[in-house]
């Protein structure tokens, strides 16, 4: 019973942090579903093409959701059979696909059309915190863009609130590792996907161009809301 509770809790923790839509499973197991976007696929053009957004959302994010649910079902079966080896073996699939679901669920909220405030600089508490921790807003943008461009392989670059020290930090994570893998006190305010599938159709292999243009559709209002909720 202790093993069942421990592994199930660990498996679901990634998904629960992103407030995903959860649906009931016929076997009593809760599963996750692809969240709707709050804007049309073409609404972020020209910064991000509608074709990229549709493939990214319908194909890539959906694949993470599907494989996450599959891994959770296999974990459920393994725990029911008392197969500890199988349960442990599934942790990498749960981390990768669950992380992909969590990260993308945040990413969609971090973007918004220019007509709805995309690219407008943050003000209030978050604006003040950015100036305090990085000097200027422009310095923060330069730091995130540089670290995102320099990240080897696939991954994410994040602006986070470190609740332990009450400061803003920039972090990178590899592959689909969620930010929590860098520290339990880190709260994601802004995450930028630097996998090639996020930009290759439009920007080819020039990741810096993608990172330059994505700031035009960043939803700082959402980041500010999270910061004000989570900061002391």
TrEMBL record:
GO molecular function: manganese ion binding; superoxide dismutase activity
Span of domain Manganese/iron superoxide dismutase N-terminal: 31-111
Class of this enzyme: oxidoreductase
Description of how the protein assembles with itself and partners: Homotetramer.
Binding-site residues, Mn(2+): 56, 104, 193, 197
Location of this chain's protein in the cell: Mitochondrion matrix
Domain Manganese/iron superoxide dismutase C-terminal: 122-225
Superkingdom: Eukaryota
Keywords: Manganese, Metal-binding, Mitochondrion, Oxidoreductase
Family: Belongs to the iron/manganese superoxide dismutase family.
Functional summary from the UniProt entry: Destroys radicals which are normally produced within the cells and which are toxic to biological systems.
Annotated Gene Ontology cellular component terms: mitochondrial matrix
Source organism phylogeny: Eukaryota, Viridiplantae, Streptophyta, Embryophyta, Tracheophyta
Cofactor(s) annotated in UniProt: Mn(2+)
Stored PANTHER family: SUPEROXIDE DISMUTASE 2, SUPEROXIDE DISMUTASE [MN], MITOCHONDRIAL
Catalytic activity field: 2 superoxide + 2 H(+) = H2O2 + O2
A UniProt-annotated Pfam family: Sod_Fe_N
Record-listed E.C. numbers: 1.15.1.1
Annotated protein name in UniProt: Superoxide dismutase
